[in-house]
Each structure stands twice: as structure tokens, then as C-alpha cells.
Amino acid sequence: MRQINICWFKEQIHKLTDYFDDKIVFNSPDFKHLIVGKDNCIQTYTDFMKISKVLLYNEANENVQLFDTTGIVTYDFEMKYEQQGKTYHETGTDIVVFNRQDNSWKAVWRGLTNLKNV
After folding, report:
1. What's the whole-model pTM score?
2. If you ran DSSP here, which 8-state letter would residue 43 be given?
3. What's the mean per-residue pLDDT of the chain?
């Protein structure tokens, strides 16, 4: 999970391909919309970073649960960013499900919850 966040935060988004399953699914915060597939999910990071300047990013309360070949990572985040001269400040909880494949872990599902504008 740390490597995934380093990739997007340090604008090395192309490296995310190493950590995502080909069929990864991102859920919207309301769990009503899906983004399916590695390329489409990586594109969300590219699109965000093209129009955003991240001013603050913090993580807290990381929790990792392992179940055989499945891992679930949750953590709270705080992010402040600027887009087109407007500043946004959000908090929430990121939930990422991993599957162990050939001795490596790949993210297969991601969702955000408790998303709030501060």
C-alpha cells in the first residue's frame, strides 16, 4: 500500500502497473459507480495529478488484515489540494483489498468511505 501511495504522490504513476491486478475495480465513495481495469484505474491518478497540486497528504490508523491469499488494508487520510486556483481539503478512509498472486500482492479492489470536505 505504501508503494502505491508513493507512486502517485511522487508522480511515478506508471509504476502502479506493478501493484494493480489487471481486473482491479475502484468504487466511488457512494459505492454506486465503478471504474474497472488496471489502465482505467491508473488513469484516474494521471487525471488527478494533471490538474492538481497536492499541498498536504497524511495517513493515520493503518490496519492490515490477512486471510490466506487475501489482504485488506484500511487507513484514514487527509488531503489538501489545489485545482484551478481553488483549494480542497478532504478526509476519509481508504479501503484496499489485495490478492497474493505468484508471491506478490496485487490490489484488486479499492473504495473510499467517510469522505468529507473539511
Report:
1. 0.92
2. H
3. 94
